[in-house]
Amino acid sequence: MQIKNNIEIINVEEINPSTLQLSFNVEWTMDDKTAVIDHILLSVSATVLEVLQGADLYCLRIKYSNYEFLLNFEEYSHACWLECITAQDRTGLQEIKLLLSSGS
Q1: Hey, which residues does 51 pair with through a beta bridge?
Q2: pLDDT score recorded for residue 1
């Protein structure tokens, strides 16, 4: 399914002070991850620093302002979450939460 032009973030849930879980209006698969990533990065003006890929987990180290995060995608649960790399990144996480919530 082509989701590139149809994807929206419908829920941003704070799991804990260092982690946000993201829910979307469409079902996505790992084949769709590029469209999902592009949507998130454009929504918060973040850049990719590093890509880490495992068997069922795809992870990006991203930079937003002066903060760094891990943007994670887990294939089997179709979960997507953003987590702080350090405790100092929590302020940036709250900024991202506001940006993503205002777009939904």
Answers
A1: 60
A2: 47
Read off the pLDDT of each residue in 9-17 and give the average, rounded to a whole number. 95
Report domain extents, the chain.
9-102
- CA 100, distance to chain mean position in Å, is 10
The DSSP letter of residue 30 is G
pLDDT at 2 over 60: no
The C-alpha atoms of residue 86 and residue 67 are separated, in whole angstroms, by 9
Q: How many Å apart are CA 39 and CA 50, to the nearest integer?
A: 17
**pLDDT at residue 5 in the model:** 65
- Return the structure tokens found at 1: 């399914």
47-53 and 57-64 strand pairing: antiparallel
Apex 48 CA angle, 43 and 41, nearest 5: 10
Tell me the pTM: 0.90
Q: Any bridge partners for residue 53, and if so which?
A: 58
Assigned CATH topology for domain 9-102: Double Stranded RNA Binding Domain (3.30.160)
